[in-house]
Each structure stands twice: as structure tokens, then as C-alpha cells.
């Protein structure tokens, strides 16, 4: 999973087995449209919450200022759990 915050949009994309979360719509918005790798895309301000805990699947929820609380996401997805990377120790 990769995350980006500079684009002024809210997006969830997938290319091969890699998921991309774009959550950079904090102060302004940029036009966006669904593309070949888009799972979801939205113009407007908002943010994403990513929950990755232990062996559970990853939960991603996107919110806009219209939400009354964190139970009112505009989009939610469950992704496969993240696999730990081996630690490289050069010694």
C-alpha cells in the first residue's frame, strides 16, 4: 500500500497487487475522474482513515466535512492484510 497526500482529491486505486490511497483534499479540491486503476475517486475536501492492525484486513474509510461523525464515511473498502517486510540487517 502506498499513500499520497499532495493531490487535492480523494482516491483509492489499485495496480496489480498494490493499492494507492490519495487523501490530500484538506483545503481545496481538484477535478478527478475514474481511470483504469480507480476503485473510487471523488472531488472535494475530505480525508481518509486507514486501519491496519495485526493479522486483520486493512480498512480504509474516506470522509468529507458533511459527516457528523466517524460512522458516516462516503466510501469504505476492506483490503487484504499487509504482509510484514523482512528486516534487512547488514551485519
Structure description:
The protein is an all-beta fold and about 90 residues long. It has one domain. Helices cover about 0% and strands about 40% of the residues. It is built from no helices and seven strands. The protein has strands spanning about 1-5, 10-15, 20-25, 40, 45-50, 60-65, 75-80. The protein has a four-stranded mixed sheet, with no helix packed on it. A three-stranded antiparallel sheet has the order 5-6-7, with no helix packed on it. The radius of gyration is 15 Å and the shape is globular. About 15% of the residues are buried. The mean pLDDT is about 85.
Query: How much β-strand is present in the residues?
Result: 35-45%
Q: In terms of per-residue confidence, which ranges show pLDDT below 50 for 5 or more consecutive residues?
A: none
The oligomeric state is: single chain
SSE sequence, one letter per element: EEEEEEE
Widest sheet: strand ordering:
1-3-2-4
Count of extended strands: 7
* H/I helix tally: 0
State the separation between the terminal residues, measured CA to CA: 29 Å
Q: In terms of structural class, how would the helical and strand content be classed?
A: mainly beta
Q: Tell me about the biggest sheet?
A: 4 strands, mixed
| Outline | globular
Radius of gyration, CA atoms, in whole angstroms: 15 Å
Number of domains: 1
Tell me the layout of helices and strands.
Layout: E1 2-4, E2 10-15, E3 18-23, E4 38-42, E5 47-51, E6 58-63, E7 75-79
Parallel strand pairs: 1-3
Antiparallel strand pairs: 2-3, 2-4, 5-6, 6-7
Short note summarizing the structure:
With 91 residues, the chain is an all-beta fold. The chain is 0% helix and 40% strand. The model has no long low-confidence stretch (mean pLDDT 85).
Amino acid at each position: 500500500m502506498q499513500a499520497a497526500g499532495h493531490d487535492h482529491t480523494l482516491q483509492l486505486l489499485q495496480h496489480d497487487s498494490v493499492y494507492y490511497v490519495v487523501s490530500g483534499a484538506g483545503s481545496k479540491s481538484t477535478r478527478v475522474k475514474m481511470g483504469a486503476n480507480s476503485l473510487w475517486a471523488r472531488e472535494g475536501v475530505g480525508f481518509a482513515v486507514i486501519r491496519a492492525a495485526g493479522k486483520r484486513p486493512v480498512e480504509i474509510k474516506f470522509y468529507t466535512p458533511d459527516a457528523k461523525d466517524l460512522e458516516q464515511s462516503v466510501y469504505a473498502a476492506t483490503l487484504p492484510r499487509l504482509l510484514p517486510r523482512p528486516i534487512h540487517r547488514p551485519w
